[in-house]
Amino acid sequence: MPKPLREVAEVPLIIRIIRGLEKGGVREIGIVIGYLGDDLMSGLLAHVHRAKLSFFLNDEYEKPNGTSLLKARDFVTGPTFLLMSDHLWSPDLLSAVGSSPVGEQQSALGVDYRIDACFDLDDATKVQVQDGRIVRIGKQLKNYNALDTGLFLITPALIEALDAVNGPEGCSLSEGVAALASRGRMLGADVGDATWIDVDTPEAHAEAERLISTLGEELDKQSHDALEHSMVTGVWPRAREDRAAAIKKAQER
C-alpha cells in the first residue's frame, strides 16, 4: 500500500490532508504520483468528490523530493500551497501560511519556533530565520531558530530555483529553498501555536493518533484550549506566556 493511503485513526493520511485543504477553501489539488501510483490514484478517486484532482507522474521517484515538484511545474501558475503527503496539520497552520504576503518572485515556508515541542527533533528539517526571511535550511543545520513544518506557499519562483539546482541526481526541496533564500526571496511564515506532525515513523504514527484523540479530527488546539478555558481559569494567559518564551529561546540559539 502507498504510504499516503496508510490510515491514521482509521482515515488515510492523504485523505486527511485533502479534507483539510477543502475546508480551507482549496478546490483544485495537484498530486504527484510515482511508486504504486495507480493504487494511490484509484484510492483517491474513490474518496474525494469535492475538489478537482490533477495527477502528475514522477517516473524518477527514487530521486529527491524537489524532482517530484518539478513534475508538477505546469500546475504552479501563481501562489500555490505545497504539502507533504505524510504531514498532518491543523486549519490554523494553513491559514498562517496562506496569509503570508508572498510576492511574485517569492515563496514562503511555514516555520515553527517551538523547537523543544518537536516530537522528533533529530528527523526535523531545521531553519534559520532572520527578519522574517529564511537564510539557511537543512536537517543537519547546527545554528537554527525554527523548524520546517512541511507546508509551503510557493510561486513559479521556487520552480525556477529548483531548475537552477537540478542535475542528474535530481534535487531536493531544501536545495530549491536554499537557492531562493540566497536571493532573499524565501519567507518564513510563523505558524504560531498551530499543531502539526510528520507521520514518518511508527512512533510518530502513534503520536498522531494520540493528538487526534486529544484535539479532535482537525488537530484544532484552539478549540481544545477554549474548552479547557471554560473549565480551568488562566489557560489562555499561560499559553501566551509559553509562546513568548518559546520564541525568545529559539531566537537565542
Structure description:
It is a single chain. The chain is built from nine helices and twelve strands. The chain is of the alpha+beta class and 253 residues long. The strands form four sheets. Strands 5, 7, 8, 9, 10 and 11 form a six-stranded mixed sheet that branches. Strands 1-2 form a two-stranded antiparallel ribbon. The protein has a two-stranded parallel ribbon with strand order 3-4. Strand 1 and strand 2 (11-12) form a beta hairpin.
Short description:
The protein has nine helices and twelve strands. It has 253 residues and is an alpha+beta fold.
Based on Cα principal axes, name the global outline: globular
The major pleated sheet works out as: 6 strands, mixed
Separation of the first and last Cα atoms: 41 Å
Helix content: 25-40%
DSSP E strands, number: 12
Task: Walk me through the topology.
Elements: E1 7-8, E2 11-12, H1 13-23, E3 28-33, H2 37-47, E4 52-57, H3 65-71, E5 80-83, E6 87-89, H4 91-98, E7 107-112, E8 126-130, E9 133-138, E10 146-154, H5 156-165, H6 173-181, E11 186-190, E12 196-198, H7 202-215, H8 221-229, H9 235-251
Parallel strand pairs: 3-4, 7-11
Antiparallel strand pairs: 1-2, 5-10, 6-12, 7-10, 8-9, 8-10
Helix pairs in contact: 3-6, 5-6
